[in-house]
Amino acid sequence: MSLTLEPYNARLYVAAQGKQLHALVDKAKPWLEAVTPGTVERYRDIPHAIANVRRITTAEGMQAFIIKEHRVALGIATLIFDQTIIHPEAGEVQGTDVGYWVAEDVDDALHRRIARDLMLKNEYVMDMREENVAVEQHQYSLVAAIPTALNTDHRPRGLEATMQPFGEPGSLQVPDGVDTFGVTFGGQEAQLLVRSYTKTA
Question: pLDDT over 70 for what percent of the chain?
Answer without folding.
Answer: 90
